[in-house]
Hints:
With 84 residues, the chain is mainly α. Helix content is 80%, strand content 0%. The longest helix is centred in the middle third of the chain and has 49 residues, at 23-71. The two termini are 32 Å apart.
Amino acid sequence: MEYLDMTKSALMAIYGDDGEPSFTVIMVAPTLVAPTFFAEVLSSPVTTTQNMMVDSDIEALRQQAHATRWANPQALVARVADGH
């Protein structure tokens, strides 16, 4: 998950690849970018919590794989973890 991803997308939609927006685009850009930025700032606690939950799940899976390796070295999980 990336922070400020929606803002980056909004700016790319406004400026495009050429990077030379017209006067109208310059006038409209703040009305699109500002709400998007504030929405992302408000959602940052949720994004942080999701990142922490994913990291926790990954660590739990690593611990399970480690336990499986020691409990049953011939198990498929153990062989994959050891690179066989």
